[in-house]
Write a structure and sequence with these properties.
Blueprint (H helix, E strand, L loop, with lengths): L7 E5 L6 H10 L3 E6 L4 H12 L8 E3 L8 H17 L4 E4 L9 H10 L5 E2 L17 H29 L9 H23 L1
Parallel strand pairs: 1-2, 2-3, 3-4, 4-5
Helix pairs in contact: 2-3, 3-4, 4-5
């Protein structure tokens, strides 16, 4: 991930995957990380937030794949609001991912959620968007507009995340690299020095 030029990664928090090991490796590589979780209820999410709050370092965001496939937007919106409030109270930025077999699978249902909860932010996993609706070909202007509304919201999120990442390593007033950037570059330089020195000795 580091060699690819990335400064962070997303880690799925699920019993089937080694999330703690991945977090440790991210920390060793000085990578920021977020966690993807799969809450089934308000109580379940509260337990997850408590667990995440005890991590050191803490994730910079929580990506939520909402498992309950409720039939009414009002019910889904109530869950989204409660999960968001719980996450924000603990100091986390909540994001909601459109994904197969989730509350956000269906295009029109997800648009309804966005109307009901305007502050809801989506994760731009475009490989899983809109899989719950089948459009006739050619796709009509109306359906193109529905797709555009979802993509527009995710573009806003992408721009906000890019700004957040920039400000994490640069001063907001001067645009100069900050102490965190200096520390990262220093540690990488030291690591490369010892790696090159060891290679020379070998």
């Amino acid at each position: 991930v580091v060699d690819g030029g990335f400064d962070g990664m997303d880690i799925a928090w699920t019993p089937g995957l080694p999330a703690p090991e991945a977090i440790e490796r991210a920390q060793t590589a000085d990578l920021a990380f977020g966690l993807t979780c799969f809450p089934t209820s308000v109580a379940h999410f509260a337990e997850l937030v408590e667990t995440f709050g005890a991590l050191d370092p803490r994730p910079v965001y929580l990506n939520i794949q909402p498992v309950p496939k409720v039939p009414i937007v009002r019910e889904g919106a109530a869950l989204i609001r409660e999960w968001s409030k719980n996450a924000e109270a603990a100091g986390f930025r909540p994001r909601f991912e459109a994904h197969r077999d989730r509350m956000t699978t269906d295009l029109r249902f997800t648009l309804g959620l966005l109307e009901a909860v305007p502050e809801m932010r989506l994760t731009a996993d475009l490989s899983h968007y809109l899989v719950g609706q089948e459009f006739a070909v050619p796709v009509s202007d109306e359906n193109h507009e529905l797709i555009r509304r979802v993509l527009e919201r995710t573009e806003e999120l992408r721009e906000a995340n890019e700004k957040s990442q920039y400000l994490a390593y640069n001063d907001g007033l001067t645009d100069l690299p900050n102490r965190r950037m200096f520390t990262v570059l220093l540690e990488r330089g030291i690591a490369h020095y010892f790696t090159d020195a060891k290679s020379f000795e070998d």
